Amino acid sequence: MTVPLPVLLLLTSLVPAAVTFFLPQEAHRLRNALSLGGALLKVALIVAMLFAVAGGASYEAGLTPAPGLMLLLRIDALALLFVSLSAILWLLTTIYAIAYFGTKPQLSRFFGFFSLCVAATTGIALSGSLFTFFIFFELLTLSTWPLVAHKQDAPSLAAGRRYLLYAMPCSAALLWAIVWLESATGPVIFAAPTDFGTLAPNAQRAIFALLIVGMGMKAAIVPLHGWLPAAMAAPAPVSALLHAVAVVKAGAFGVIRVVHDVFGMDRMSELGLGLPLAALASVTILWGSVRALGQREIKKRLAYSTVSQVSYIVLGISLIGPFAVIGGLAHLIHQGLMKITLFFCAGIYDERAGVKRIEGLDGLGPRMPWTSTCFSLGALGMIGLPPMAGFVSKIYLGLGGLQSGAPWVLAVLAASTLLNAAYFLPLLYRLWFREPAPEVQGDERAPALVAPTVVAALGALGVGALAAAPVSPLAWATLLAERAWLP
Amino acid sequence: MNALVVLLTLPLGGALAAVAFPAGVARGAALAAAAGTVAAALAVASEVAAGAPPRIALGGWPPPLGIALAADGLSAALLVTTAAVMAAVLLAARHTMAAGLAGPRIAFGFWPLALMLWAALNAVFVSRDLFNLYVGIELLSLAAVGLVAIGGKPEALAAAMRYMLFALAGSLLYLAGVALIYAAHGALDIDLLASRRPSGTDALALALMTAGLTAKTALFPFHVWLPPAHAGAPAPASAMLSALVPKASFVILLRLWTEALPDEASPAALTLIGALGVAAVVWGSLGALAQSRVKLIVAYSTVAQIGYLFAVFPLLPLAQAAWSGVIFLALSHALAKAAMFLAVGQWMAAAGGDRLEELRGLAQAMPMSAFAFALAAVTLAGLPPSGGFLGKYMVMTAAFTAGQWVWALPMALGGLLAAAYLYRPLAALFAREGASVAAPSRARQAVPLALAGGGIALGLASAEPLALLANGQPPIQAVVR
Amino acid sequence: MTLWVGPLLPLAALVWPLLIGAAAALPGVRDRAMRLLWLAPLPALWLALAGESAATLAPDLLLGVTLGLDPGRRLLLGMTAALWIVAGLAAQPMAERPRAAIFAGFWCLTLSGNLAVFLAQDVVTFYVAFAAVSLAAWFLVVHERTDAALAAGRVYIVVALAGEVCLLVGLLIGAHAAGATAIAEVRAALGTSPGGPLAVALLTIGFGIKAGLVPLHVWLPLAHPAAPVPASAVLSGAIVKAGLAGMLLFLPEGAAGPALIALGLAGAYGAALWALTQRNPKTVLAYSTVSQMGLILMLVGAGGAAREAAPYVALHHGLAKGALFLLVGAMLAAGSRRQRAACLALAAVAAASVAGAPLSGGALAKAAVKSELPAALAQALSLSSVTTTLALGWFLHRLARTGGAHRSALPLALPAVLTALAFAAPWALWQDWTGRAPVYALAPDALRAALWPVAAGGLGALILLRFPLPEKPPGDLLTLPLRWRRATPRWPELPARAIDAAKLAAALRNAVARGERALLRRQASAALLPLLALALFGLLAGRF
Asked: What subcellular compartments does it reside in (chain C) (predicted)?
C-alpha cells in the first residue's frame, strides 16, 4: 500500500505524538529519538517535494465521509511555504526543547502534545478545503492548551484559561461562517474558485468578517490579541512554537487562505473588503508596538512584538497587489525565523542566567556572546534593518502599499519601525553597554540550546541577505504571487 | 435464532439468572449474557449494513394483527452504541459493584437491573409497534428507577420517587395517545400508520404522546428530576441512566415525528419543541456552571445535551442532514457521557467525594481517566474531530440550507457553554498540587478512555456510521399546510 | 546561483572590509584587529584610481545588487578611501585599549557602508549601504562609553533612525513612481510623478540629517567630538559626504533648491558663529563641518554646474577636516613645546585651506564654483570665508590650550599627509573638473578675492581672543527648552478583570437554585406537562 505524500507528511508528527503519550517518563532516549526522527523525516520529505512543486506539481489525498463533508489534503506552493517553515522550525524547537527540559517531569505529555500541535499545524498547511482547515485549526487549539498550561502553576493555568476564553468563541464564529458559506456554495475547495452563487454581497461581507474573527484570534489581531501576551507564562519552547511556528502563524495563514483562495482577489476588491482588513492590521501593528514599549518582562515585550509583526502578514495580504502579497507571504517565513530566534534567546537568558525582566539583561552581552548576538540580530531584523529578513518584508510591503493605492501604509511602516526600534534598542543597549549586576550569573554552556538559536539567527540573516536568490522565501512568495496574477 | 430475538431475550435471561443464582455465579452469568448481547447487536448491525435489515413478525402474524420487530440503520446504530456503553459499564462494574466494595444490596440488585435496562433499550430500538414501545419504556423506567434507588440513601430514594412520578405521568400521556391512535386506525404499527388515512384525533394523539415522552426524556422544563437522580445513583448506573435511557424515549419521538406521523407535524409545533430544546441547552448549561460537584455538572450537562436533540426538531422536515446530525449528536453524547460518569466514579472511589476541590490534581494519579474526561469534553463541546462536532456541523448545515439559521445558534452557543462548564472540572483535575491517592489499574482506567475514544472515532471514521444510518432513513416530507 | 556579473573589483571593495571586520571577531585576530584597519579601504582606493566604469551585478544578494561609478562619486570614493586609510593608521595606537575588536569590527562595517553609498546603482543597495554607515557609526560614537559619549549616542541613534525611516519611505515612493530600482530612473521619476515632492522632502530630510543640514544637524556637534579621534575624522570627513552623495544622486535638478540654499547658508553662517561659543576644539571643528556642509548643500540647491562641482568641494573639505581632527589627537599626544608648535603650525595650514586662503585647495574649490553661482550666492560664498576663518581661528586658539599627554611618538605624519592631499588634490584635478587652466586660479583677481575674507576673518579672530563669547553647551537647538520626559504609560485594565468572578458565580448559583425550586414547587412541572400537551395539540390541530 502506498501512503499518499500529504498523509505521510502528517504522519511524521502524528505517529510520534501517538506513541509518545504512552511512553513512561524515564524513556528519554526513545522519546527524543521519536521527536527528532519525525522532525527530520518531515524536513527530508519536504525537501524532496520542493522542486516538484516549484515546477507546478501538486499532491492530493482526500476522503468524503458524507456528502458535503470533504477532507482534503493538498500540497501546493502556498501549503509548502508554510509547511516548510513549520517543519524546519519544529526541528530546531525540538532540539531546543529536549535540551531545555532535560529531565523535568511530565515530558511524555509535553512532547506528545508538542508533536500533536505540529501535526495540527501541518494539517492546517496542507488543508485543501475550508472544512479540513477548520478541523485542524481546532485540533491546534486543543493541542496547544496543554502546552500553554504545561507548568500547571497559577499563571500558566490562567494563561490557558484565557487562551480558551478567546479561542472558543472565535472558533464558534469560524464554524458559523463556514457553515453559512458552504450551505450556499457547497464545499469550499482552495484550489478551485468559490462560486458564491446567490449569496447577497452583504452576506458575503458578514461571512468574511466572521472568518476573519475566527482566524484573527489566532493571528492575534487587535482586539482579539489579549491571550498572546498572557500565554508567555508557558515554557520558552512553547512560546517559540506559539509565536513563530504554530498558532499565530496558523491564524495568519488562515487569513491568507480566506483572502487568497476562498474569496479571491477580485471578489475582495469587488466587495471592498481589503481596506477594512488592512486598516485593522495597521491598528494592530501600531497597537502591538505601543503596548510592547511598556512591558518590562522580556517575553511579554516579545509577545506584543508578535502581535504587531504578525499583522504585517495580514496587511500584505489585505492590500491585494502583487508586491504587498509577496511581502506578506515572505514575512510569514521571515517573522518566524526572527521571532523564534528571539524566544530561544529569551529562554536561554531565563534558563542559564535566571533573567526574565529586561533590567536583568544588563551586561549579559559579553558573558553570553552567542546568545546575545543572536538576540541582537533578531531584534535588528524586527526593526527592519538591512540586511535582516524584516527589511525585505518591509520594502515589499511599502511598495505594495503604493502599488495598491494605499500610500498610508508607508506611514504605518515608518511608525512601526520607529516603535520597534524604541522597544528593542534599549534591550540591546542593556545587553552590550550596561555594567552587569553582580548577582546575575550567566553562561551559555548549553550547546543544544545555543546551536538551534544560532541556526535560526543565521536563517533570519540569510533569507534577508540572499533574498534575491532562487530558493529564498522571497523567491517562493514571488512565485506564488506570479501564479496568482499572471494567468 | 434471529439476532433480534437474542437482543431481547438474552439480557432478560441474564437478569433472571443474576437474581436466581448466588452472587459469584450471577456475575458470571450476567457477563456471559452481556457478551452474547453485544455479539447479537453487532450481528444485527452487519445485517443492516449488508442491506438485509432483519425483520420478524412475532407469532408469525403480520401487523396489524401481530407485532413487528425490525432493525433499520437508526436501530442498528443505537444498538451498537448501547452495546458498547453497556459492555464498558459492566466491565467497570465488575470491580465497583462487587459486594465487598458496594455492599450486598447493590451487588445483588445492580446486575439484574442493568440487564433488564439493556433488554428494554433493545426492545425500544427494534420495536415497530407503538404499544410494544410503551411496554419497552415502562420496563426501562422501572429498571432506571430501581437503579437510582439502589444506593438506598434517603436522597437517592427521594430522587427515585420524583423520577418515578415524572415517568408515570409521561407514560400515562403516552398511553392515552396510543389509545387514540388505535381507536382511529386500528393499527399501531409505525409503517402502517405512515400510510394511514389521517384522522381528526391524530393531532391530539401526537400532542399527548409527545408531551409524555418529553417528560421521560427530561426536556426542559421537565428535567428537574434528572440531576438529583443521575447524580445520586452509583457511577456505573449513572452512566447508563445518562447516556442511554433518555435516548430511548427520544428515539420514539423521532420515529413518531419522522416515520409514523410526519404529515401531522406543523411548523409552529416543531418550533415550540425546538424552543424548549434551546431553553434546555441554556438552562442545563447554566445549571452545570453553577454546580460545584462533578457528578451534578455532568448530570446538568445531560440536560443541556438533550436540549440539542430537541432543538433540531424544526429542521427535521426541511433538511436531510438534520436527521443524521441529530443521531450523531445522540450517539456521541452516549459514548462521551458514559465515559465521563465512569471516570468520575473512579475519582470518587479514589478521592472520597466529587467536589471540585477534592479532585484537584487527580490527573497525576489517574492520567488515563483524566484524559478520558478531557476527550469526552471535546465531544460534548462539539469540537472537531469528534462525533459531536460532526453532528453539530450537519445540523448547522441543515439549518443554513433550510434557510433557518436561527436553529444553528443553539448549536454554536451550546458548544461554548459546554466548554465553559467542562473547563472547571478539567482545570481542577490538571492542577499541579495532587494528593497521593490509590489509583485504579491502567486497565480499568482504559475503560472510560475507550468510550471517550469512541466518541472521537465517531467523527474520524464517520463514513461507516453514516452509511449505516442511511438504511431506512425516512425521506423528508414537506409539511402539509 | 550567480555570485556576480561584471568586474569583481567594486564588489571586492565592499566585501573586503567586511571580511576584515568579521575577522576581528575571531579569537586569534581579535588583539591585532586594529592593526589591520588601514588595509580595509585599499581595494576601494584602487577602484577609485583605476576608475572602473562598467557595472557589477550580484543578482542573488539582497534584492539584487548593482554597483557602478560615475565621475562625481569616483572622486568621493577616492577621498573616502584615502581618508579611511589614514584614519585607520591613526587608530593603530588604540589597539591596546579595551574593546578594540568591537571598534575594529564596526569600523569596517561603517567603512563598507560608506563606500557602498558611492558605488550603489540601485535603490535597495543604496539604502542598505546608508543604513550600514549610519547605524554602525553609532558604535564609533559611543566607543569611549563616557557619559557624554553615551548621551551623544542616544541623540545620534534617534536622529539616525528617524532619518532612515524618512529615506526608506522616500525611496519606496521613488521606486514605485519609477517602476524600477535603478537610481537614475528613480531620480527622473521623482521630478515628474505626483508623489515626487513628498519623496523629495523626505529624502532631503533623510540625507540632510546625515549631511548636517540645519536644523537637522543637532546630533553632529555632539557625536563627532564624542568619538575617538580617528573616528571623528572619518565621521566629519567622509561619513557626512554620504548624505551629500544621496542628495546628488536622488534629488532631481532644482528640486528643493530654495530650501537647500536657505538652510545651507543658514548653516554656513550660523554654525560658524555658534562655534565661537564652544571650548572643546573638536566641537568647534564639528560646527565647522556643519558650516562647510551648509555651503556644499547650498551648491546642490543652486543646481547646474555648481551642483556638478559639489564633489570637488567636498573632496577638499573631507581631506582637510580629517587632517584637523587628527591634529587634535596629535595635540593630545604631544609632549614637548616643539611638538605642540609643529602641531599648531600644521593645523594652521589645514585651517587656512578650509577657510580658502589663496593658493590653498579650499581657494581652488571656491573658485571652481563661484563663477557658476548667481552673483548673490557667489558673494555669500566669499563672505562665508570670513566666518570660517573666525571659527577656525578660534579653533586654533582652543587647540593651543589643549593639554598634551607627553607621549614620545607623535603621529604628525598622518595629518601632514592629509593636509598635503587637501592642498594637492584640488590642484591635480582642477583642469578635469573646471575645464580651465590652472593659471586661472593664480590670477591676481582670484588671489585678492580669496585673500580679503581670510584677512578679515583673521582680524576678527584676534579680536575674539581678547573678548571671547560666553560658553554655550554643544547641540544648540537641542538645549532649547525641550525636555525628554520618560514615563511608562499606564493602560486601563480590561473590563473582564473588573468583573468579580466569585460574585458572578454566586449569583448564578442562586439563580439556578431558585429556578429549579420554582419548577419543583407544587409540582409545577407536573402541571406544565398537560399544558405542553395542550399547546402542542393546539399548534398541531391548527396546522400553524
From this structure: Cell membrane; Membrane
